[in-house]
Design goal:
The chain has 164 residues and is α+β, with helices and mostly antiparallel strands. It contains 5 helices and 7 strands, in the order H-E-E-H-H-H-E-E-E-E-E-H. It has a 5-stranded antiparallel beta sheet with strand order 3-4-5-6-7. The protein has a two-stranded antiparallel ribbon with strand order 1-2.
């Protein structure tokens, strides 16, 4: 049998399997508003961290023999680094709690775990996209378009479950 997670299961659409957390396309799609906010934070705090590190790199490491203005700037940048680190850790923990994988931190690519042909795979979403339109196997980063039949079947199955 081929196809993604919904075509693989017998009555149970998502949840824990012997391979770990499995999400359907609908579940993944429903998570996008929250995930997009988290990923927006990751991108923001990653850039802020890079800027603070770059600014700090241009200042003397030993602040004992510099004037207060430079020393104050170093202290401020170190505080900023700590803040960026805390915020990034928080965002990473949120993604981890959702069982998602951040595939590219700089542009915001997220993998939603699923199964395709009984193999671990991801539905792929990138910041700025309105919907999840791609997938890939976890061991092969080649992005593939999600066949329309998968989404149509998922919607049909959802309607059947609601009618029952």
């Amino acid at each position: 049998m081929s196809g993604f997670a919904e075509n693989q299961s017998t009555g149970q659409w998502a949840g824990r399997s012997s391979l770990g957390e499995i999400l359907t396309w609908e579940e993944s799609q429903a998570m996008l508003p929250l995930v997009s906010r988290i990923v927006r934070d990751v991108i923001h705090w990653t850039r802020a961290l890079d800027e603070a590190e770059s600014s700090l790199g241009g200042l003397p490491a030993n602040t004992h023999h510099v004037d207060w203005e430079v020393r104050s700037k170093v202290y401020h940048l170190k505080d900023r680094l700590a803040e960026c680190g805390r915020e990034l850790r928080g965002a990473f923990l949120e993604l981890e709690a959702l069982r998602l994988t951040l595939l590219d931190q700089e542009v915001g690519v997220v993998g939603f775990p699923t199964l395709v042909n009984n193999r671990r795979a991801f539905f792929i979403w990138q910041m700025g996209e309105l919907t999840i339109a791609h997938w890939c196997y976890t061991c092969d980063p080649t992005r593939r378009l999600i066949p329309k039949a998968w989404i149509r079947e998922a919607k049909d199955n959802d309607l059947e479950m609601r009618a029952a």
